[in-house]
Amino acid sequence: MAIIIDGKKISSDIKNELKARVENITAKGIKPKLALLLVGEDAASQMYVRSKERYCNDIGIESVVLRMPNTTTEEEVLDIIDKWNNDKTVNGILVQLPLPKHINESKVLLSISPSKDVDGFHPENVGRLVAGLPSYVPCTPLGIYELLKRYKINLKGKHCVVVGRSNIVGKPIANLLMQKEPNANAIVTVCHSAAPDISYYTKQADVLIAAVGSPELIKGEDVKEGVVVIDVGINRVEDLSTEKGYRVVGDVNFAEVSKKASAITPVPGGVGPMTISMLILNTLRSAEKEVYKD
Ligand code: GUN
Question: What class, spelled out in words, does domain 31-114 have in CATH?
Answer without folding.
Answer: alpha beta
